């Protein structure tokens, strides 16, 4: 495929949790803005459960081509393209001319993308707290990745937890 890169974006607790009961656990406005700004103008690829977790008033995510992956052949998502595999989702992004589609979750989609070695860059917001959850970000081998940027943010009146914006590139991308 003719991408500059395939990226993923996720917010992860210290213990790997990314969600519970198909919902976000924390509220970090700076992280939501980072997500919006980083994915703006790109294709966002997500699983059906992730699509369902987005409040109706925000679906589809504005300013982005929304692609939903599901095994359910009869599933419809207003304002989004429905596909049945990660490769089909990436082909959809390529046909749309996107040079950097973003995989935005959930846990199963992240796991598939990493296992299939499809991701070139990871935007990981590390929430510096442990949470009870039922959805996790998969472990990855940090030896195969290079941390190219990190910004630490402290708690404040709008953010209960400290967190860090981290960008990881595959080691062979930015030597």
Automatic annotation (TrEMBL):
Task: Report the record's Gene Ontology biological process terms.
Answer: dihydrofolate metabolic process; folic acid metabolic process; one-carbon metabolic process; tetrahydrofolate biosynthetic process
Name one cellular component (GO) term. Answer: cytosol
Q: Return the Gene3D superfamilies for the record.
A: Dihydrofolate Reductase, subunit A (3.40.430.10)
What this protein catalyses is: (6S)-5,6,7,8-tetrahydrofolate + NADP(+) = 7,8-dihydrofolate + NADPH + H(+)
Q: Does the keyword Transferase apply?
A: no
Q: In which pathway does it act?
A: Cofactor biosynthesis; tetrahydrofolate biosynthesis; 5,6,7,8-tetrahydrofolate from 7,8-dihydrofolate: step 1/1
Concerning CDD domains, the annotation shows:
DHFR
UniProt domain DHFR: residue ranges: 5-170
Q: Which family does it belong to?
A: Belongs to the dihydrofolate reductase family.
Function description: Key enzyme in folate metabolism. Catalyzes an essential reaction for de novo glycine and purine synthesis, and for DNA precursor synthesis.
Q: Protein name, please?
A: Dihydrofolate reductase
Q: Which organism is it from?
A: Salibacter halophilus
Query: Which lineage?
Result: Bacteria, Pseudomonadati, Bacteroidota, Flavobacteriia, Flavobacteriales
């Amino acid at each position: 495929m003719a991408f500059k890169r395939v990226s993923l974006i996720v917010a992860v607790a210290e213990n790997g949790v990314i969600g519970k009961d198909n919902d976000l656990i924390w509220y970090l406005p700076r992280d939501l803005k980072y997500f919006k700004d980083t994915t703006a103008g790109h294709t966002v690829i997500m699983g059906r459960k992730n699509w369902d977790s987005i409040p109706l008033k925000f679906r589809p995510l504005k300013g982005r081509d929304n692609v939903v992956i599901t095994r359910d052949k009869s599933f419809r998502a207003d304002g989004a393209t429905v596909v049945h595999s990660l490769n089909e989702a990436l082909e959809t992004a390529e046909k749309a001319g996107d040079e950097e589609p973003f995989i935005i979750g959930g846990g199963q989609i992240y796991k598939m993308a990493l296992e299939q070695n499809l991701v070139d860059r990871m935007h990981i917001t590390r929430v510096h707290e442990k949470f009870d959850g039922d959805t996790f970000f998969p472990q990855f081998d940090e030896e195969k990745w290079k941390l190219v940027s990190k910004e630490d943010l402290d708690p404040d009146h709008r953010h209960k937890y400290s967190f860090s914006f981290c960008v990881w590139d595959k080691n062979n991308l930015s030597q």
